[in-house]
Each structure stands twice: as structure tokens, then as C-alpha cells.
């Protein structure tokens, strides 16, 4: 066994240099069993979690224009849209009918929407439809704060009072400023993203974090990303899960490379080892498929994220019903359990 992996298995925290050494020089077959052992040390019950929520992309109008995204539109495009309160209610009722009790609100960064658009949606979802709501990526929150001229802490309290209970770690992709310039110069830089997530946690809005890789990011930048997540988590404890994604080819404006199953599982396993302060590691069945997803549950992951009720941004390979999710988990050798969007 690689000596640095042996240290991790013995409960010693590895630093960024050690993580880079493992990423560069340890084989995936060395890293995976260590991550699996650590997963079972931290979570000795042989259980795998899943969630049941519907993503509602309330608008595809976006001023950020990420180079890798094919979802965003200008407001004068023929297929641009912003959902009404009643359209969101209809989608919510459809989701509730198949067992969902949670809504994930996410949209483009639309500079023309008023604050009451957001608060009325949150109030309707939580008070009238009785669902919990995770919503608004850091860049959405930051731009709302700027557009409405409301300090971010005050905005978070307004949204919380209206019904928001958790936030996604969306829009992180790779937290290195070189890569973020390539992804989208109008998006938050790495420090802004981290500061916004930290503030959300400090205001009682926990959530998730992720990494999206498979472009021309360097190994150093991958470790830089993981280090940012671990540093915020050391301060707040607000990240309840971490998921590893890969970029999907959507445009010709952003380089995408093939990520092998071995490379994916190695980074998934390294995430479990390095992010020793994040309780749940999720495997991306939506993006990576069922076969690799099953292997991921033996490579450090203990969660499969959510069934897919609606997905407009990515091509989905995910599970589409509660029965399907539970059957998948059992077939992988685990006992399924349903956890809430707020990670209770």
C-alpha cells in the first residue's frame, strides 16, 4: 500500500501535497479499497442513501453565459422562458404525486426578476404545497444581492423567512481562477464562491458541494478545488454531501475530454479520503450511469443523490422512481434509506 494511503487508513489527515501525490502516482486499485474502508469506518451500517426531489429550472434566461452550457438563453430568444407561480405549482403537484416532498429551485441568472418573484414561490411551495426547498446557487444569490441592492446576509434572511431551507453547491465546477476564466468570466471567482457558501452556512442554510472535471484542468487544480471545500467545511460544517461529476459535451466553446471509469472512481475515492469532514459522498448515477454508479458505492460513496423527475440541463442516465432507486441499492449489496433534502 502507498504509505500516504496507509496514513489515511490509520485516521491521519492528509494534506494537499499528499493528496496531489496520491492523485498523480497511486493506482486507482490502491485508492479505492482505502476509501471503501474509510466509508465503512465512518458509516458502519451497510446503508446507502437517496433523495426524492424535483429540479425546477424556473428560468433559462441567463446573463452569465457559461462556455460549457447549452441551457441558457437571452431574454429575446424564441425559446426563452420564465415559469409562472402556477406553472411551478403544477410541476410541484406532479412531483408530489410520485412521492417527492422536496423541490430544488435553480435557474439562470436573470437580472430582470423582482425579489417578490422568489419570495412568493418559496412561500407557495412551503406554506401551500408543504414541500421543503433547496435553491439558488452562489452566483444566483450573489447577483440577486447586487441587483436588489440588499446585502447578502440580509437577502439570505429574507429567503429563509420565505421558506428556503438549504442551498446547493452548484456552479463550483473547478475552483481555480484559471479554469473559471475559461468556464465563464462573469461567474464568481473561487474566493467569491467559497465566501458565499460560507455565509449561507453561517445563516443556517446547509447544503452540498461538488466538483465537475474532465476538461483541461490540471491535477493541481483538482486538489486546489478539494482544498477549498475542506477549508470551508472546517469553518462551518455546512456541506452535508459532496458529489463528483464530469463535464458533458454541450457546446463547441469549451474543451471536454473522455474520463475513464478508472479515473472517475479514483477521484471519487480520493474525495472520500481527503474530505474527511464531509459526511456523505455521492456517486453521480445521473452522469456516469448505473454500472459505474454501483462500483462507486464500493469506492467510498454512500449515496446515489436523487431519482430524476426532470432534468433540463444534462443528459440523464439516472434512476427515475423510488422503487428503481431502492432496487438498484439492494442489487449493489446495500440497504436503501431515504434522506431529506436538508440531510436530516
What's the layout of helices and strands?
Blueprint: H1 3-9, H2 16-25, H3 28-42, E1 47-51, E2 53-57, H4 85-97, E3 102-106, H5 115-128, E4 132-135, H6 138-148, H7 152-162, E5 164-166, H8 177-183, H9 190-202, E6 207-213, H10 219-236, E7 239-246, H11 261-274, E8 280-283, H12 285-288, H13 290-296, E9 303-306, H14 322-331, E10 335-338
Helix pairs in contact: 1-3, 2-10, 2-11, 3-11, 4-5, 6-9, 9-10
Helix proportion range: 40-55%
Q: Name the overall outline.
A: globular
Structural class: alpha/beta
Largest sheet: 4 strands, parallel
* Beta-strand proportion: 5-15%
- Give the termini distance in whole angstroms: 36 Å
Order of helices and strands: HHHEEHEHEHHEHHEHEHEHHEHE
Mean of residue pLDDT?
Answer: 90
Total strand segments: 10
Q: Low-confidence parts lasting 5 or more residues at pLDDT below 50?
A: none
Q: Looking across the biggest beta sheet, what order are the strands in?
A: 2-3-4-5
Number of helices: 14
Q: Cα-atom Rg, whole angstroms?
A: 19 Å
Amino acid at each position: 500500500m502507498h504509505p500516504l494511503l496507509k496514513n489515511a487508513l490509520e485516521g491521519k489527515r492528509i494534506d494537499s501535497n499528499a493528496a496531489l501525490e496520491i492523485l498523480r502516482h497511486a493506482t486507482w486499485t490502491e485508492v479505492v479499497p482505502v476509501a471503501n474502508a474509510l466509508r465503512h469506518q465512518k458509516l458502519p451500517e451497510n446503508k446507502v442513501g437517496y433523495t426524492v426531489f424535483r429540479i425546477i429550472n424556473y428560468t433559462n434566461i441567463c446573463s452569465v453565459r457559461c462556455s460549457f452550457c447549452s441551457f441558457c438563453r437571452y431574454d429575446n430568444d424564441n425559446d426563452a422562458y420564465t415559469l409562472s407561480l402556477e406553472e411551478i405549482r403544477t410541476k410541484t403537484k406532479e412531483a408530489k404525486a410520485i412521492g417527492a416532498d422536496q423541490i430544488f429551485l435553480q435557474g439562470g441568472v436573470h437580472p430582470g426578476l423582482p425579489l417578490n418573484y422568489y419570495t412568493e414561490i418559496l412561500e407557495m411551495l412551503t406554506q401551500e404545497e408543504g414541500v421543503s426547498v433547496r435553491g439558488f446557487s452562489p452566483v444566483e444569490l450573489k447577483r440577486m444581492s447586487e441587483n436588489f441592492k440588499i446585502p447578502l446576509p440580509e437577502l439570505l434572511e429574507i429567503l429563509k423567512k420565505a421558506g428556503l431551507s438549504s442551498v446547493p453547491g452548484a456552479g463550483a465546477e473547478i475552483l481555480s481562477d484559471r479554469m473559471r476564466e475559461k468556464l465563464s468570466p462573469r461567474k464568481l471567482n473561487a474566493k467569491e464562491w467559497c465566501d458565499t457558501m460560507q455565509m449561507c452556512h453561517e445563516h443556517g442554510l446547509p447544503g452540498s458541494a461538488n466538483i465537475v472535471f474532465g476538461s483541461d484542468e490540471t491535477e493541481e487544480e483538482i486538489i486546489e478545488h478539494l482544498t477549498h471545500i475542506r477549508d470551508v467545511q472546517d469553518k462551518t460544517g455546512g456541506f452535508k454531501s459532496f458529489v463528483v461529476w464530469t463535464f458533458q459535451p454541450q457546446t463547441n466553446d469549451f474543451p471536454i475530454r473522455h474520463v475513464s471509469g478508472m479515473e472517475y472512481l479514483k477521484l471519487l475515492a480520493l474525495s472520500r479520503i481527503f474530505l474527511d469532514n464531509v459526511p456523505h459522498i455521492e456517486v453521480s448515477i445521473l452522469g456516469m450511469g448505473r454500472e459505474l454508479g454501483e462500483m462507486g458505492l464500493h469506492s467510498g460513496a454512500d449515496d446515489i443523490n436523487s431519482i430524476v423527475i426532470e432534468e433540463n440541463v444534462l443528459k440523464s442516465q439516472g434512476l427515475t422512481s423510488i422503487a428503481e432507486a431502492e432496487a438498484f441499492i439492494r442489487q449493489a449489496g446495500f440497504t436503501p434509506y431515504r434522506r431529506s433534502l436538508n440531510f436530516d
